[in-house]
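Fig. S4 source data, part A: sequence.
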Amino acid sequence: MNTKAVTEHRASATSVGTPPIAAHVHPAHSSLTVKRGFDVVGSTLGVIVLAPVLMLIALAIRIDSPGPVLFRQRRAGRDGRAFKMIKFRSMIDGAENQRAALAHLNEADGIFKIRRDPRVTRVGRILRRYSLDELPQLVNVLLGDMSLVGPRPLPLDEDRRIEGRHRRRLELRPGITGPWQLLGPTLVPLSEMVDLDNRYIAEWSLWTDIRILLATIPHIVGRRGI
């Protein structure tokens, strides 16, 4: 999806996270079961196949900068339940404590995002470029906190800005990737991101998840990971 598509989403949204005009349909229990089965199989295979890569990344982080290999942050999960999302640490240790001081550099609307964040480490820049920092979230998928594909997992302070019917985006588990990831480096405003999530839920199918997973690969390989 390109910048023009983002603009089209902006034009169609009249408030934060305006859902599609079509009537909202809750995902059926059978559909959720199929989605969960797909997640378990996919994440299990992912952990097994990528185990050597995960170990090399952990070693590189340990050598590059002081601090833990993994970064954990509370995010809003399905039905608003908080969980600890796991990522490879791509910033200096204690980066969260510097966020307020860097607020003036924020480039996104409604969420905190800086393209050239000064807190990012040397290894972290590579990890983020190819979205490799997201790989530990395969464990979150196995634990049932996340899905391979789904709405964007927001930090709790950003999630609290979404109210009312717009919280339908939380009817599915948040995903490692999703429609928002396919926008590449575009800094999507919160209102448009919520709209994308609601459209995804309204139109969900297993084939949709497969298509998004397949489409995510060229975006990452093309150095458009975020």
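Fig. S4 source data, part B ends here. Confidence is low (pLDDT under 50) at residues 1-23.
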